[in-house]
Amino acid sequence: MSGGGVAFLDCNNNGKLDIAVVNDSSIDRYLAGGDPMITLYLQDGNGKTLHFTDVTATAGLTTKGWATGIAVADYDNDGLPDIYVTGYGHNVLYHNLGGCKFADVTAKAGVAGGGFSAGAAWADYDRDGFVDLYVARYVSTDPRHLPDPQTRVYKNALTELPDKMPGETNFLYRNRGDGTFEEVATKAGVQNPQKAHGMGICWGDFDGDGWPDLYVTNDASSNFLFHNKRVGTFEDIGLDSGTAYGEMGQTYGNMACDSADLDHNGRFDLFVTRFAGQPASLYINDGHNEFHDAADRAGIAGPTSPLVKWGANFADFDNSGWHDLLMASGNFSTLLDGAPGEPPFVEPIELFLNKTNGAFREIAADTGLNAGPLKSRRGTALGDVNNDGRLDILIFNVGAPPSLFLNETRNDNHWITLRLVGTKSNRMAIGARVTVTTGNIKQVDEVRAGGSYLSTSDPRLHFGLGSAASFDRIEVLWPSGLLEQFSRGSSDRFISLVEGSGIALPSGQARLAKTPGLEIAQAIPTSTPQPIQSTSYDLLPESRWGHKKSHRKGGSFLAPEMRVSQPDSDRDEPGVAEVTRRLNRLLGESERVFQGTESSPSEEHHGVSWIYFFTTPP
Ligand SMILES: [Ca+2]
Ligand SMILES: [Ca+2]
Ligand SMILES: [Ca+2]
Ligand SMILES: [Ca+2]
Description:
The chain is mostly beta strands. 6% of the residues lie in helices and 36% in strands.
């Protein structure tokens, strides 16, 4: 199997991220009923220590099956994140009852799916205040009627190759707002009638019109970019946009996607991972729904090509103000180890540091990410699991416990992390577009719920601010259409922004097309809003990444080479041994003992470093 996914979520809203991990199964076990589809690890440290406890059974997450992916969102706007799990045979929707107790509401909700579901992700595509769910399905296969082994041997491995198997259509579940969903993929034009092999999903407003668009990666086929036509329907502009194929029009084995505004021009760019021998694509958004593949120029095509690539995330790991890129890899079978031309089952993680000039440099070896035993990696998720202002990494490993990497980068850079609370908009503000201005730099990001490879990251938006000890303003374009400003404030803290508590900017309503059905006000607890000052909403200059033209010069507060300093004992930062001890029971039962290693800081450290924790095999 090509699973699976991981998720950061805060299941009891106590401000500390919990962890959900998909559970693999096997054909024999699946035919006997399967395995519990996910494991939930509750973060229950005392604030000083990081500690997790497996609460799967007491949380009621007991539905069995063969899981692949996980997508978390608050589908009923009650303030508690709910969990959707994809898998083979059936999917499951767990409603969060509070206190990290869940109920399987799949049947009532009508989102069981069927067949072989892979990626899933939430977005409010019709902007009615309730998040909707897209599910990509992979191949059509039946473990009770497997094909003749003699016809399905790939090198040394008995396997079914996707390009020789029929695919399946995809699902779009429209949230009716009453706990039930209506499957509307055909009506909406996102059904995938050609039955391409769906894998990854990236919702994002790629054309900046305020309506979420949908990118779907397909194995052994071209990718879809479904442009939201604002009337409940989509059109596939994958081919016209330049995001359907490889740079020279190649059809590839596409796995996962992620998006971010890499070049500070307000447009979301796309990254796509692929099978071995196929470079990843970095599709730079040129505006007007046109992209070009800059992976080669950016120094990403070469290093990514040999690997069997899965999860990938853009994130600012050193808080420089520029997105770096994480990528996880691993071949699909140990039986291929040693086969001519085949990458091994276990492969290194790659981390590309943004050089801020349109190019990246692969620095994983210097960060400690590969200091422990290599694994066959799959889904990846990001989140600040210890709330120290640095994004940490969670990765699914095939046949092994997941890996959690704590970001131990030491530098003087600043950051803010924003939690958005929708009132008219969906409660988790999925799809909200946030612009953070520091000096003459504007960074844009969007709240997402599911993506990359089968996984869900921390819903809080993390912004590295470089040397800026304060931000000038934050603007939020809520899914309801409201554009609000929150005033200047100091960096290095977590801020909650509640829809309606800032200063409304009139241009927000005018900028977006009106849509009916947005009057879904709810009484919710609010945090203290920031004091306000008004301002204009300037556009940014053209991208320096673009092939068309670039007039963006200087003016940046971002220094690419960050000073590396040793841990400051005054900051009450635990050392490796102490963290190791504290993490002794991390991610599992008492028999899963953790060991810690640390990479050695060096001149080639590049300001990014990690403590690597891994479990001994059970
Ligand atoms: Ca909920
Ligand atoms: Ca909706
Ligand atoms: Ca759009
Ligand atoms: Ca952290």
